[in-house]
């Protein structure tokens, strides 16, 4: 039986961090284990690590981005996605993507979704080495939190490229799930039975 995650409509934004190469497996796992629907929008950088074909086959939905299709007659793609989402997840988030949303840019579909959605946005940065210790990175993370985004602290983890233990890895997927579960319990966006039952109880 599928478990209740706390959110039913999950939008993943895929960015140009190396861990995006593993995203198809996480999406497959989520779909098998939880009662949820998953959509994805990808940045230009994400295409280095994952293909829209794999993501659409695994998620069972068309993949948006980086830019807009010519035909927007059904409505602007980023607005439809922003409205559809109960939660928006950037896992893992490149620093470039974090910087763009910290500045409020909306020059591709993923950033435009973040700029417009009412849903909670969970950001799990992947920094690589000590780059998060730089003043500009600290400013950026602070800014994202000021915007109300849920930014998860990076952890030290085994680098898949160097094999060494390094700072700046994104949180493990299990930790991301814990965050979603916790947020789902309090988010007015959530439509799952667990949240409905909790609201009925008062
Ligand atoms: C092998 C490889 C791994 C990378 N991993 C990361 C990473 O973990 N975090 C990051 O901020 N940038 C990483 N980058 C750099 C980004 O891909 C680059 O900044 C890109 O412009 C980000 O694009 P986006 O805004 O579409 O995410 C990596 C690049 C390469 C080639």
TrEMBL record:
* Molecular function terms, GO-annotated: FMN binding; phosphopantothenoylcysteine decarboxylase activity
- State the Pfam families in the record: Flavoprotein
GO cellular component terms given for this protein: phosphopantothenoylcysteine decarboxylase complex
Q: List GO BP terms, alphabetically.
A: coenzyme A biosynthetic process
Domain (Flavoprotein) spans: 9-126
Gene3D superfamilies referenced in this protein's UniProt entry, alphabetically: Flavin prenyltransferase-like
| Entry protein name | Flavoprotein domain-containing protein
């Amino acid at each position: 039986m599928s478990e209740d995650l706390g959110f039913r409509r999950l939008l993943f934004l895929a960015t140009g961090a190396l861990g995006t190469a593993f995203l198809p497996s996480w999406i497959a796992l989520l779909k098998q284990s939880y009662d949820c629907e998953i959509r994805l929008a990808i940045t230009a950088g994400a295409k280095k690590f994952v293909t829209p074909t794999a993501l659409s086959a695994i998620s069972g939905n068309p993949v948006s981005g980086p830019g807009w299709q010519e035909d927007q007659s059904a409505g602007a793609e980023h607005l439809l996605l922003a409205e559809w989402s109960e939660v928006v997840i950037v896992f893992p988030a490149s620093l470039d993507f974090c910087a763009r949303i910290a500045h409020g840019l909306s020059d591709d579909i993923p950033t435009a979704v973040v700029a417009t959605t009412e849903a909670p946005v969970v950001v799990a940065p992947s920094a690589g080495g000590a780059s998060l210790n730089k003043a500009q990175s600290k400013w950026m993370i602070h800014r994202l939190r000021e915007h109300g985004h849920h930014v998860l602290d990076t952890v030290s983890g085994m680098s898949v490229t160097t094999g060494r233990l390094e700072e700046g890895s994104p949180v493990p997927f299990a930790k991301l799930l814990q965050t979603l579960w916790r947020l789902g319990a309090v988010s007015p966006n959530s439509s799952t039975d667990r949240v409905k039952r909790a609201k009925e109880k008062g």
